[in-house]
Amino acid sequence: MSPNEHRATCQTRRLRHYLMIGIAQIALSNGASSLAVAEDLPRQVTEIKNFHIPAQSLSSALATFAQQSGRQTSYDPAIAKNVSTNGVSGVMTPEVALSSLLNGTPVQFHRLNAHTLILERKGAANITLGPVRVGGMVNRESATGPGVGYVAKYSSASTKTDTPLTEIPNSIYVITKDQMVDQQSQTVQEVLRYMPGIYSESTGTASWGSGSVSSQGGGNFTQRGFASTQYVDGLLSNTQASGEPAFLDRVEALNGPSSVMYGQSGAGGLISMQLKKPTDTPLHNVTLGFGNWGRYESTIDLSDKITKSGNLKYRIAAIGVTQGTQTDHVDYHRVGVLPSIKWDIDGKTSLTLLGMYMYTPGDGSGNYYPLYGTLLPGKNGYIPRSRFLGDPKYNTSGNKEAKFEYQFSHKFNKYLEFQQNFSYDNSRRFFNNTFGSGLATDGQTYSIYGWKGNLGGNTSQIEKTVALDSRLIGHFNTGPVSQTLLIGVDYRHIDEEWGLTYDRKAMTINIWDPIVSSHPDYSAGSTDTLASYSYPSKWNQVGVYFQDQIKIKKLTITAGGREDWYDYDYHSTYSRQSVTLGNIALEPLSAPINQNSHAFTWRAGFTYNFDFGLTPYFSFSKSFNPQYGSILADGSAAQPLTGNQLEAGLKYIIPHTNVFLTAAAYHIKEKHVLESSPDIVGEQIDGGTATSKGVELSAHANVTKDLRITASYSFNDMRYTRSNNTVRRYDIYGNPLEKVPLQGKYLNAYPRNMVNMFVDYTLPRDIFHGLSVNFGIRYIGFTYADTANSFKVPAHTLFDVGAHYDFSDISPSLSGLKVSLAMSNLTNERYVGSCSTNQCYYGQARRVYGNISYNW
């Protein structure tokens, strides 16, 4: 072949390649009717793979591309020297991925054969491709995947369909995997600390190792002032270990009512988590971590194909960690494994199986402290954060948890799809420890009581949860109108049993010199002060729901409704050990309770997408959440929480950038919020209606390939707005004072103002060769210590810093090696996360964590 013929042949190949990509773009952007064109493309163009290549040096990115694409790349290393790429992420052809990877660089490629791509410098006469954005299912990020940098633009959490965030008429904030890694988050509380409208660390380190929010009552997270609910892979989950960041690809905060899709959830919203599952491209990662308080950690994350064709893939993630905490005698230990398999049965059917086991013999949960000496200075100043106000002999707290899950999907045709998710959770919580009760007026004598689980092996709680969600999704086009219809039914069943033995005789310590004066003795027949409680319960809930997403050009209307039926049985017993009588007296603690009812919830809203990237939206939604097992002071069962929200806002993607800005204003009312009884200690009353109104602003931005930012501001005014009740004020020792009207009082433990920002910046590579630094600031406004608003918990400002170094910028042979360091609460500020009546929770002291990771 002559040189001229060779050049002509190469130009023909390039033209044919670009033409094929263009045909794919046109076919996919024109909808399903044009897909037949794409189906006729050669295999090298229509072969689709999942890519996730972050911004980095071009040489290391090309090495990763070769692994993920199965293609060979041939080039002179000199053309990639000192060249960086913005990276690429999404499901697409290898050629489209490489085009995106090379966009903005002086390098281009052409095909040598079906498996080899030749890279060369761009010439003046060469064709230069702009950003390649193919519609349909080709070049688009996954709605359940890790996101790209700090920006995610698709979600399935709110609608249970893959939907752009700009077509969803309510607030959804996504924490990507890259953000979790850069911040070195060790708990879900830390993952959520930079999100608007969420206060995730109100109890400080008192629940450090719990890992996640309790799905029954919110635990430690609040959204827009109300208790949160936790869902994992779209299903209700009580498994705390599901919130282990090492097992998560993505965390989403759905702020505002979400009952129409999920049934029971609070008016403030829910937290949606996505566990790691098999990837379409090989993934191999190991880390070794270290930190203060004696932390040592190791993780693995492996994914690859099992069969040669790749229709059967696996993934396995595992973690082992041990450390102390800022509190003496409180430790954290955890080992866990998360294996999964994905089977692409055929081109239309897939099945994913997932299992998890987590053993946490020490969950790192610290204790709370009296208000006097924490919020207010005591006779000897402030109680040190390291002080353990309990009995070291009785100091066990942990859990064992197991989970099985499957996800099944089948596409009947281009119009109709069936999806089903199932999960089974089994958790056992055990403890044998003490809790504080009150501080004497001498300012030093603190009463504590001993308790332990009595269900065998110090087990205090056994919970088994079965959840199933099945749905049909239809896609229809009628002229200018396209619709996505969803009809589903979900079911959950929970068996729960609590068993506690409680020493009613108080032990005392001096908070300034804590030496326990006596110890509980749980041996049979040893004391008259032991009492045992049993709380078996079970509940069922069935929900039927529908949703219609109607798109007319730039207008998207979303409407849906749901009917829920629930049934709850609860029975408690009380027994007291009596030495004098020589037996155990068993008596009911309260009458058996059965709660059963039904509720209808709905939502409706719209978005309008302007061509210049701005999307205004408006929505109305309702919430419903049974208060299972909550008994009022008069002996009646608490009514379900019912709420509604009006929300309006703006979402803006700045054109030709990866900058996503949002603004939202909301007004929420929730009825039957419970409050402490002013007359009977430990009992509750129906507090009436609470109203939450506020504003949230957020920014998620990959400003450049080297600069990533997340920032937010939240304002929330939350009060009891309709109540005839009174609430009791308390003094600094926890002693009751006068009663005051509840109406108009702020809810406690939720700040009115929160501001935060986190920035990660890779320094110029030609000077620093892969060094990145980051900085975060978190401002938490004041809260009230109780609903009587007796005391204010002061505002606090915290600073976080970190750095990470990518060794691939030094040498291609070190590609995949990375070192990271993160430090939270840089100034080691002593602050109180929140208080309630006579107890306060210290926030986390300075925490230092680093790790060495290797990808291959």
From TrEMBL:
GO terms for biological process: siderophore transport. PANTHER family: FERRICHROME IRON RECEPTOR-RELATED, FERRICHROME OUTER MEMBRANE TRANSPORTER_PHAGE RECEPTOR. Gene3D superfamilies: 3.55.50.30, TonB-dependent receptor, beta-barrel domain, TonB-dependent receptor, plug domain. Residues 71-122 form the Secretin/TonB short N-terminal domain. Belongs to the TonB-dependent receptor family. SUPFAM superfamilies: Porins. This is TonB-dependent siderophore receptor.
